Amino acid sequence: MKIARHCALLAFLIALCAAVSFADEPGRHPAYLHALTDLRHARAHLQNPAPAYHMDKEEEHAINEIDKAIDEIKRAAIDDGKNLNDHPPVDARMDRAGRFHRAMELLDKAHNDIAREEDDPSVRGLRNRAIHHIDEAHRIVDHLIVQAANY
Hints:
Blueprint lengths: L1 H22 L6 H17 L10 H20 L19 H19 L9 H26 L2
């Protein structure tokens, strides 16, 4: 009986130590999780919530590329389970060009977060495809900025 209690106590202490040692670790790919947040926020800047606003095809294409990048990153890293609308609030007073510029900054941040060297060969392809989608969204948003300046 005493031996069983000692073994149970020892097992509990080992489990407790393991839980404490892993609790503060940010995960295998914390930069990927930061990139997911930045991409969601960039997406929100491109998706104007005003009911009278008509989104053009390029804005839709950029959002589609961001969605694809988010999907690739989720498969390459741990899925944080947040939905696409989980992002910091977008400043409603920001004009169209301002939203595009902010989206561009966030796309750059996301690109820099995941472009680091990947030590897991099984996710390099996913990471590279995510970078491709981010770069494509970046190209589209850059074009949207030029168009907005011409209006």
